[in-house]
Amino acid sequence: xxxxxxxxxxxxxxxxxxxxxxxxxxxxxxxxxxxxxxxxxxxxxxxxxxxxxxxxxxxxxxxxxxxxxxxxxxxxxxxxxxxxxxxxxxxxxxxxxxxxxxxxxxxxxxxxxxxxxxxxxxxxxxxxxxxxxxxxxxxxxxxxxxxxxxxxxxxxx
Length: 157
What we know:
- With 157 residues, the protein is an all-alpha fold.
- The chain has helices at 2-40, 52-80, 86-107, 123-133, 140-156; strands at residues 42-43, 46-47.
- The protein has a two-stranded antiparallel sheet.
């Protein structure tokens, strides 16, 4: 009945927050290995991290990770306190964490150059994991649509 569906929704929101934290961890690691490689790899006698193209990519990754971190913390707060905002917080965490991990996993390949496509570094592992985690407990499109619906209802009231 209705009670079972509400319990199922609550479980899904809780899972969404936890998966979002796993995605955030993956995004942080992809950024970390990219920044470390950009500091040590040299091109034309300088670390590649000094070049604008690499700096901008790393900055984009950092910004997306920080946005996801804020949403994940909000989701954790809502989860821990059984707040009525849990639905919105979980959806926001999933959307931003999915975006952050996908961006970081894809963007980490470029600074690594051809090494990013080999088994020597973990870029491809992060990329595959980002794709797999984005589908756990609902794909990003599902969470975006949920968030839009919740915000539309709130604004209509």
